[in-house]
Amino acid sequence: MARRRIRWPATLAAFEVPGFRRVWTAALLANSGRFALLLVAGWEAYRLGHHSSLWPGLVSFFLLVPSMLLGLFAGGLADRVNRAWQAAAGQLLNVLVTGVAGVLALAGRMDLGVVLAVSAVSGVGNAIQGPAWQAMVPHLVGPDRLRNAGLLTRVAQQGAELSGPAAGTAVLALAGPGPAFLLAAAFYGAGVLLLAQVARSAGLGAADRRPHLAQPVRSGLRYVRAKEPLLVLLVWVGLHCSLTMASTGILPAVATANLRGSASAYGLLLSAFGLGSMIGPLALAWVGSRVDLTRSLVVSAVLSGLPLVALGLTHALWLATVAAGTAGAAQAVFMAFVYVGTQGVSAEELRGRVASVQLSLTTGAMGLASLGWAALVGPLSPGLVLVIPGAVFSAACVPFAARGRSLRDGLAAAGVGANEARGPSRSVLGRPTQGALGAGGLGAGGLGAPGGLGAPGGLGAPGGLGAGEVGGR
């Protein structure tokens, strides 16, 4: 008797593809592991570093920097090998390093150097898997469901910002740092198992598998420069991450200066950011293709910056909470649609390299800009440090909005932004993509920030550095 096919609502249309359901769940698990690691490593660095905020900031920095330095090479690799296995390999490295950290903590051998080394090695794992994650989804779901898949992947990434710290906090408080590190390893390990299930039917990536290192990077950069929609979107998202998402690391100082120094106020702002970043993509997934992609990019970009101006100026908690929720929703939608645009216009054999350029740009912008914005707190008031990047980015959106028609035409020429169908997802060769992955492998939208597993996360960690998603923002 044939098994009955589940009919998913239009809001969750991409879940009709079994492979996407697995990589979506793997993204949620891996990002939960990343945020649990960020929590426990940040706390241990703070405790072992004599309660200095420098060390938690370095934990976040080491989680980001490898994606900036190694991501371009990982992107070239993702276009030549099975992308699911590459993502699983990066995640397996994180299983091993967090597992070792858990054992060392249980044995009482944890010190500050070990914490920073664990963060750096985990950052390398994120760099390996980030481009592969980002490049997999288009092949899995096909162009008809790419917009929906991008938004749903964003929900997984943002949901992990709640599930990872919540589970990590409970284990850390009840059992200590050793079990908390092991919890992160368990999250990563479950994601590896899911990726392995999807990869069983996947072939190798591109036909050219010669052991080049620099040549794929050069060809990827040339491709980005020559393709105008890609270049526009990448410059835009680089500004977005350096101005709006990097600056949210100073929220503790804003809560102290503007909202009477209440710890609960800071927690409320973070919760509003997190809740908004889940509601925004879900709302756009429900609306579907009834809204224009380019117009949505412009609106979400402006709403990523303007609420930060209100948040930096207000002393009313209710208004600050509304502003934080609005900014979180807009930033998540903008990042999701940039992902849809960049991957949608890219050739299948170059998607890994395009994803790596985006991840290197966004993680680098976030990491360096976070340090810069944090350094301004003191010479300037925290509220003003939040107002400046919000206002600058909103103004910077004007020339991008003026190019809206040419951007729309460029996306449309690649078939991006068209109405999404509910029929069987098709690959570029016209064969159903469910269950079988051809050249180019598998994919899911990044696991970040920071690092993508991808893309840049951006609520920040103690010390002011934002964390990128597995795979990516």
Write up what this structure looks like.
71% of the residues lie in helices and 0% in strands. The chain is built from 15 helices and no strands. It has helices spanning 18-48, 54-78, 83-106, 112-141, 146-175, 177-199, 214-226, 228-245, 251-258, 263-287, 293-313, 317-345, 351-376, 382-402, 404-413. Helix 5 crosses helix 12 and helix 11 (293-313) crosses helix 15. The model is unreliable at 419-468 (pLDDT under 50).
Characteristics of this structure?
15 helices, globular, single chain, 473 residues, mainly alpha
Task: Summarize it.
This protein is mostly helical and 473 residues long. The protein contains 15 helices and no strands.
Category from helices, strands and their pairing: mainly alpha
Radius of gyration: 21 Å
**Mean of all residue-level pLDDT scores:** 81
Shape: globular
How far is it from the N-terminal to the C-terminal residue, by CA? 43 Å
* Sequence of secondary-structure elements: HHHHHHHHHHHHHHH
User: Largest sheet, if any?
Assistant: none
Helicity, as a percent range = over 70%
Give me the count of strands: 0
In oligomeric terms, what are we looking at? single chain
Q: Please report the number of helical segments.
A: 15
Strand composition percent: under 5%
